[in-house]
Design brief:
globular, binds pyridoxal-5'-phosphate, alpha/beta, 2 domains, four-stranded antiparallel beta sheet, seven-stranded mixed beta sheet, Aspartate Aminotransferase, domain 1, Aspartate Aminotransferase, domain 2
């Protein structure tokens, strides 16, 4: 999954364009920037690549989530239904917005289970936030239907799944807003960066203004711009955007290498009766960043992980024991150790979190990162080591 593996001439060229003028800011300085608008260029290219009307590039995926929550006016008094398997940032952004996360279950897509949503809905539920984990998507058709039926906002955390799709509809573009991360270990990187995408002009206008202190971005004199509402600073710098422009040019190449490598592993894994592959709703739309599978039970999963380290199969993840991606080890949320006071501290009740189904799935789940740089020889060695590790 990491685009940083392909850092090279393209990235250097776009960064030098910016260094040559010294205009590191994405707004204004029209005369001095010699026609280079890297953030704008990235946004235009992302919108056309994902077939979505509007994109706004910002400083991180976490910033993108905060921007989207603000634009959708999700905050005080609101509950947001989320999966317990995600990166902590999803939850952090909800807490920062003043809303309360309500944990629901995942299914074998490793994403939010549509069947687990409706019994979590209360009079305070404002939004559903599926997270497309490890390059592959939640069952968005079902989730969207539930949101429409119950009049709930749909906000996609697509930080790990840029370029993934179901029936040609891209992750992030199906809900009211979608968020991406371009941090250093994502499919493509800006170094640090993120984006919100939407088909709503109104939400887009809110997004760019909110991420820049409320600036309306009308005209070319920053000082004279008006502030329709207060915002924050979630701007990206032109240097980061420049890296992103180059990486976005590589997205198709990255995804096709990932898919090719992943297929080799999947074809081998299919022969093992003691594992089951993760459910992928649309195989052709898989971003290919990870191959994930279920062992027979928790012990089997642990045994396989031990074998992986014995046989030098690196880049493998047992998320159930991981501190950052699964609810089980999120004692800092459960203990409400927030440095700032928010409604979360009063309203969140850890005792009400019931995610047994997710626990059962996560106990058996193993993922392996798909690298872009593996040579044919390395692929063969890895396939052999993988097979050896699964014989338990
Ligand atoms: C990486 C990630 C984020 C946060 O992105 P940053 O750019 O690192 O802030 C949010 N959600 C998920 C699912 C992620 O993987």
């Amino acid at each position: 999954m990491p685009g940083f593996e392909l850092f090279g001439d393209k990235e250097k060229k776009h960064v030098s364009d910016v260094l040559d003028t010294g205009i590191l800011m994405r707004y204004n300085f029209d005369g001095l920037r010699k026609g280079h608008w890297k953030a704008l260029e990235f946004e235009k290219n992302l919108s056309s690549r994902l077939n979505v009307k509007y994109s706004h590039l910002c400083s991180s995926g976490t910033a993108a989530l905060s921007i989207a929550l603000a634009c959708l006016k999700i905050g005080k008094g609101d509950e947001v239904i989320v999966p317990p398997f995600t990166f902590v940032a999803t939850i952090e952004a909800i807490i920062a917005a003043g809303a309360v996360p309500v944990f629901s279950d995942i299914d074998k897509t490793l994403c939010l289970d549509p069947d687990s949503i409706e019994n979590k809905i209360t009079k305070n539920t404002k939004a559903v936030m599926p997270v497309h984990m490890c390059g592959s998507m939640a069952d968005m058709e079902k989730i969207k239907k539930i949101c429409d039926k119950n009049n709930l906002l749909l906000l996609e955390d697509a930080c790990q799944a840029v370029g993934a799709s179901i029936n040609g509809n891209y992750a992030g573009t199906i809900g009211h807003m979608g968020c991406f991360s371009f941090d250093f270990v994502k499919t493509i990187t800006c170094g640090e960066g993120g984006a919100v995408v939407t088909n709503s002009k109104d939400l887009y206008e809110k997004a760019h203004a909110f991420s820049d202190h409320g600036h309306d971005h009308i005209g070319n004199d920053r000082g004279k711009e008006t502030h329709p509402f207060p915002g924050l600073n979630f701007r990206i710098s032109e240097l980061n955007a420049a890296v992103g422009v180059a990486q976005l040019e590589r997205l198709d190449e990255i995804i096709s290498i990932q898919r090719k490598n992943k297929k080799i592993f999947k074809d081998e894994l299919k022969n093992f009766k003691n594992i089951e592959l993760r459910k992928v709703i649309d195989e052709e739309g898989d971003n290919g960043g990870f191959v994930s599978f279920f062992a027979e039970d928790e012990n089997a999963a642990k045994k396989i992980m031990e074998n992986f380290s014995k046989n030098n199969v690196d880049g493998t993840f047992y998320w159930y024991a991981n501190n950052w991606h699964y609810y089980k080890n999120w004692n800092h949320f459960r203990d409400k150790n927030n440095l700032y006071k928010t409604q979360f501290c009063d309203a969140f009740n850890p005792d009400s979190v019931q995610i047994e189904k997710s626990d059962e799935i996560m106990k058996k789940t193993i993922s392996m990162l798909i690298k872009l740089s593996w040579t044919e020889e390395e692929m063969e060695q890895r396939t052999e080591a993988l097979k050896k590790s699964l014989n338990i």
